[in-house]
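Troubleshooting log. The previous structure file for this entry was overwritten by mistake, so regenerating from the original sequence record. Sequence copied from the archived sheet and checked twice against the printout by T.R.
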Amino acid sequence: LASPYREGLRWFKGNLHTHTTRSDGAREPEEVVRDYQARGYDFLAITDHDILVEPEPYQHNTTMTLIPGVEVTANGPHLLHINTSERVPPHRDRQDVLDEIAEQKESFAVLNHPNWLAPLPGLHYTHSNMRELSRYAGIEIYNGVIERLPGTALATDQWDQLLSNDMRLWGYGHDDSHLAGDVELAWNMVQAPEASASELVDSLREGRFYVSTGIYIQSIAVSERTIRVITSNATRIRFISRWGVIQDTLDSQAAEFTVPEDPDEASILGYIRVECYGGGSAMAWSQPLWIETGN
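Regenerated output below.
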């Protein structure tokens, strides 16, 4: 099993998709930063539409790490440009946007809210759209603001299709907050030695995080063939493989799954990702752990 996770690192909570009055958000950047700070977040990216809001003026008033970002919006489907050093123009050909982001060495891109029905009645990103694109880190598998818009906040169906077609992409979870009520709907819990921008961005690019809407994972330990997951508040844990097939379900706060020893059986699975369920609508999603059989 190829795992992005490491032992001995701390977990940090953050959101990478946030709007303010600098574009179409309802609140000033200062108020947004205070709100996330009060909720115990460790990092935040303000990602207004086609506008780079420099974090420096707000960094001295918060202990959170502020990461520069932009939501590339005009002329096509939306995507996040995280840890930007310079705003990329919203080229109509989104591959041109992704190529320019990739050229900024410390940046990465995330495709936004694929199951938003905008413009109606079509999906914001279809599966074929996303398969045609390259040089992006992953997609939003949960976008909180779509809870109150046409479409579906959850996009693990699209994710499994991409993963099953051998696209190694991470799943991100964000608020996409525009209003005060859009905060703390979904977040990323990132493994890093410290909450510096460089360490957080490295982990976010390399998959050392999980997505949560209220479930907290304490550890994801991976040996040669076995995954062990320990949570603080899950009541059910599922292990999911290629094409979204549920391989096992355990009603427990902790669980493990062992990949078959037979290489042919293991290769059929392709990957294993973990979904954790708790009270209400609380969930958590791990990144995919790739099964490498050598075949």
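The CA atoms of residues 32 and 247 lie 41 Å apart. Archived copy saved in two places this time.
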